[in-house]
Sequence to fold (384 residues):
Amino acid sequence: MKVSCLQENLAKGLSIVGRAVSARTTLPVLNNVLLATDKSRLKLAATNLELGITCWIGAKVEEDGATTVPARTLTDLIGSLPPERIDLTLNVRNQMLELRCARTEARIKGIDAQEFPIMPSAESEVSEAAGAQTALIRAEDLRDMINQVVFAAATDESRPILTGVQVEIQGDRITMAAADGFRLSVRHAPLVEPVQSPITLVVPARALNEVARISADEQNPVAIRVVPGRGQVLFHMTNAELVSQLIEGNFPDYNRIIPKSHTTRLTVDTGQFRKACKTADIFARESAHTARLSITPGEDGTPGKLVVTATSAETGDNVGEMDAVVEGPALDIAFNVRYLIEVLDRVDTAQVALETTTASSPGVVRAVGNEDFLHVIMPMHLSR
Fold:
C-alpha cells in the first residue's frame, strides 16, 4: 500500500471512526483502525462488534493495499503533525506502516487487515439480499429527530430495550420514540419517498448519537437500510457509513402512555420557561430536583401566570413568575426540573405548551407550531 492524503482530512476521518474503537477487548485487532485503498480514496473503519463506522477521504493512491494500526497511536500522531501532505507506505512483510509528513517520520506496527471483522456496506452483496429495505430521510430531519428523542432513552442497562430508540417507518413517514420509565419523547418526520412495506426496529441510543455526529455536514439524504434476519441497521451517507446491531425485544406500547385529553393547558415563552427552570434547579438539587409549577388562569382580561418554585431545607428557596396563556382550571403540579430543562433545551419553537389533568397525571410538552414533536413527563409527589 502506498497512499498520500492531507493531514486535516486524515485527522477528520479518524475522529469520525474513532468512537467505534473498542475500549475493552480481548481481540487486539479491535483496538485498531483499518486503512484500505478504495479506488481513488482511502477507507478508514473501526468497530467494537456492536457498532461499526466507516468513512472515506480523498487520497492519491499509488499502490493498493490494506492494514490495521492501533487507533489511539495513529490518532495522536496525526493530531501532532502540521497541516501538510502525509505519505503512507506499508511494508507487507512485517506489517509496518511508514508515515512521512514534512520533517517527521514514524513507523507504526500493524496487524494484517484480514484479521479485521468484515463490515457490511451499502454496496455489499449482503445489503442487496432478498427483502432488504431502504428508507431515505433528509439529513437535517434525521439530526433533529435524534436530538429531540435520544436524550429520553434509559442509561440503566437493567432494561436493555429502553436503552434503545424505537424506529417505525411506514408509508412516507418515520417515527422515533424513546422512554426511560419517567418520560417519553416522540418525533415524526417525512421520508424523501415512501417505503413499500413497514419497518420497525429498536436502535441503540448510542448508535443514533453517532449518526447525528457524523452526519453533521451531510447535505444529501441519509439512507437507512435493513436486511431482515441480520439484526443490523446501516446508515449510509456520502462519505461515511455506520452499522449497528439492533436491540432484540418488544418496545413498550408508548401510545398507551400518551394522555388522550387534558383539562389545563399552559402556553408560555420557551426561553423564559427554560430560564426559570434552570434557576429553580439551583435550589432543587438537594430535593431530588423537584420543582413546583403553579398554573393560574387570568381573570377579566389579565394574562394567566406560571410560577416555578423550588425549595431546599439547606440552602433556601426560589420563586420565578411569568405571564402565560392558561386554558382550564388552576393547577399545582411538580416535576423533576432536570427533565423539564432537557426537553426545553430541545424545543425549537418560540412558545411551548404544557397539558395536564391533575397533579398526579402525566404532563405533555408540545412545541407550539410543530405537530411532529411531543414529550410526556411523569409528575412527582407534591408535598403540602
